[in-house]
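[job 4471] stage=fold_predict status=RUNNING
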Amino acid sequence: MIQSELREGVSRNLLPSAWQGRHLLIAILVATAALNILRVVSNALGSSPSIVSSPDFTVIADPNLEFMRMKVRIGLALVLGAAALCSGRLRGLAVSCVALGWIVIEYLMWWYRSYGIAKNAEAGEFSKISHLAYLHNATWWDVWIIAVISVILIYELKTFLRR
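[job 4471] inference complete, writing structure tokens
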């Protein structure tokens, strides 16, 4: 009796439960969402039109607003996914899966547009254009988001299918 209680107590303290793992994933998702919002806001405040001038002409190029809109949609989906995952209910899990799935779709559309840029530039391969992870103008932060979303989405789908 004492030995089984000791064994259960030790295993309960040393082995993280699914609940503790869920809290860790929520914390990572919330931190990623918050840092992504800060990054988008700082990029929006720091971006100004590029001015190229010469004696004959002046060109003013505005920052790419579609790229900024995509980053905002990803940020909103991260916040929605984190909030829904915090509920701990089946409906919240489903909403979180949809929100994180939307992020995957956004990155796939970004990859497709990057492929089009490489094809139109006749680069033939991505090494001749600015890219990271085959995404035009991507940063390591984008790679981090893809990795986090992949892990959390797999966890959520596994949990969703078990219920």
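[job 4471] summary: Residues 5-16 have pLDDT under 50 and may be disordered.
[job 4471] exit 0
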